[in-house]
Amino acid sequence: MMLSPMEITLIKSLEEGKDYDLEQAAKISGLNKDAVLKASYLLQEKGLAEVKVVKDISYRLTDEGEKYLSEGLPEERLYSLIKQGVDSIDQAKKEMKDFGIAIGWLRKKGIAKIEGKKIVLLKDADFREKELLKKIDDGETPEGVDELIRRKLVSVDEKKEIFVRILKKPSAEIKDVIKDLTPDILISGSWKGKEFLKYDVRIPSKTIFTAKYHPYEKIVAECRKIFLEMGFTEIKGSFVQSSFWNFDALFQPQDHPARDMQDTFYLDAYEDLDDDFVEKVKRTHIDGWKTGSTGWGGDWSLDTARKLVLRTHTTAITIHYLAMNPEPPVKAFCIDRVYRRESIDATHLPEFDQLEGVLLDKDVGFRHLLGLLREFFLKMGFEDVRFRPGYFPYTEPSVEPEVYVDGLGWVELGGAGVFRKEVTEPLGIKGKVLAWGLGMGRLAMLRLGMKDLRKLYQPDLGWLREIPVSRLRW
Ligand SMILES: N[C@@H](Cc1ccccc1)C(=O)O
């Protein structure tokens, strides 16, 4: 029989027939607890030791449990009030706290019901709960506490303890086994004729969590790589934008609902706009300027355009970039944070990221846009892509790209379109602009098979540790 040095150490240092917990065994043998555990299992396989896993369950009162132990359960208090003749809901409410909880339980247990404003007793009751709470408080572990656990009056501590017992100590042990192959052993040749320690991959060991990139960061990087490979340049811009670049330059009328305080975070500050763009954009809004459009009509206020906002979309960045780089060809993208007044739920956050892009060239059109986006989605691993008609004030035609995901069906991923002449001409942009803005978080959720967007931004180690690295291709 071949024993490893670890097993030999353990078997030598423990007495036969006696149970040791891991801590004791570690102390006596000088091995660490993991090594003791490993050696114990190895010895058990050879019939030399026995490993016992003992679960120790103990109960504890929660704060609420303690409160009820001293005050009595709400339903018990209400029950005795009723017994004393209090049968009106209003009066019972006055005489006790937790009436709602109390009547809930009396009804659930079939002890009382409500008729109009009265409480009607249906049967006599005895309440075992308090007795159980008392026992638990005295350190006992009584039966029948499931209901109390569900009511969160009692919590359960489960401790796992592992014991090892040496069954016999073989006398004709114990060959000298080589554990580590060192240069010395190799040079001297002392390994010859000896046995090597074998690994046993079935032995339980501690889980080790290595550092890894956040899966969201990886997917962002994947998108970035795709656009870089397609010849796009990554651009950045300020989180704070004038309404002019966030809305007006995109031919979004000044009374558009998206500009409402309800939807947009405004800063209490204004930016000076001395651009010569301003006049042309203003005219385009009012009467179409030289674009051939009729514009939106009405007035256009410079103050409204000067007001600063937290950018509501990254289209503010791409349009400004095009205004500064109006000569074709231009291919640019931007993956960055945007802000909207949203109530937080599983699919909405007030901050999220968009994957924005523009392609400016002379002879491009709608079909190139669809082809380009389809190509991107295919590269991201979505095989079925379709485009539904959409509406944005700055594009014509406009579409909403959708991808097909098993179990979810068609999922919308943002917007896209060809910039209108009311957008390009006042800014001097020469050519056609294909533009899109996709929900980066949604894209990541779909790829990661998640249902709750919030998880992407929470430091939830449980989830992060479980995400298989294989789902990410970066
Ligand atoms: N800005 C749009 C998306 C979009 C970008 C570019 C063109 C068309 C649509 C949004 O935030 O939803």
Automatic annotation (TrEMBL):
The keyword Magnesium is annotated on this UniProt entry: yes
Main localization, broad class: cytoplasm
UniProt key word Magnesium: yes
GO molecular function: ATP binding; magnesium ion binding; phenylalanine-tRNA ligase activity; tRNA binding
Catalyzed reactions: tRNA(Phe) + L-phenylalanine + ATP = L-phenylalanyl-tRNA(Phe) + AMP + diphosphate + H(+)
Cofactor names: Mg(2+)
Gene Ontology terms: cellular component: cytoplasm
Binding residues annotated for L-phenylalanine, in chain numbering: T315, Q354, L355, E356, Y394, F419
Protein's name according to its UniProt entry: Phenylalanine--tRNA ligase alpha subunit
Gene name tied to this protein: pheS
